[in-house]
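RESIDUES AND SHAPES:
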Amino acid sequence: MSNAAVLLTQQVAELQAHAERWDAPQLLRWGLSQFGSSLAVASSFGAEDVVLIDMASRIAKFRVFTLDTDFLFPETYALINEIESRYALEVERTRSELTPEAQAAQYGPALWASRPDACCQLRKVEPLKKKLADLSAWVTGVRRDQAPTRAHTRKLEWDAKFGLVKLNPLADWSWSQVWDYIRAHNVPYNPLHDRDYPSIGCTYCTRPVKPGEDPRAGRWSGFAKTECGLHIKD
């Protein structure tokens, strides 16, 4: 671990408990003032992510990036364009080094259907690792009540997996709080949310959720998989 990383881990350790008392704008304000352009908001353009973008736009200039797997819904691509226009920013698109055609040639067709973990690794985890290597901090829309795997998320963390500071400003928010914010501020959102898609990923691995199902039941349906690997601690 570099000297800079050691200092950052110490800073997180000292502030972590205090940060739990900060509201989302306070944490974003701290992160933007502390890290400036070496901090970026990670966005898959779900409901939580558009809240963070709108919130950050009220504080300071900021960076936002998305993992473009080449398999996103048309509605997601349209929302990215709308967000860029609405907030006068450029979304940094991060892609796999393999085109979909190259992936199919090397690993076989429809890798997502036979080995979804491998597909996520190639199209999400590896591109994210490369992106985060140039940052000191990243901001995510992870909430504790999204899934059991996220229940112990702290608002301010040291991300040992990727080696940088991680801010989760909405960690203690509920799904209804997210939507209260969207409606109060007229924030653009993915219309798939109105069609029973609470969690939106790639076209091949996302389906609508049925009444009574877990909100993430529509992701990787039929597999014992609930995470793409971005927020799983090693």
Summary: Strands lie at 39-42, 63-67, 92-94, 137-139, 156-159, 164-167.
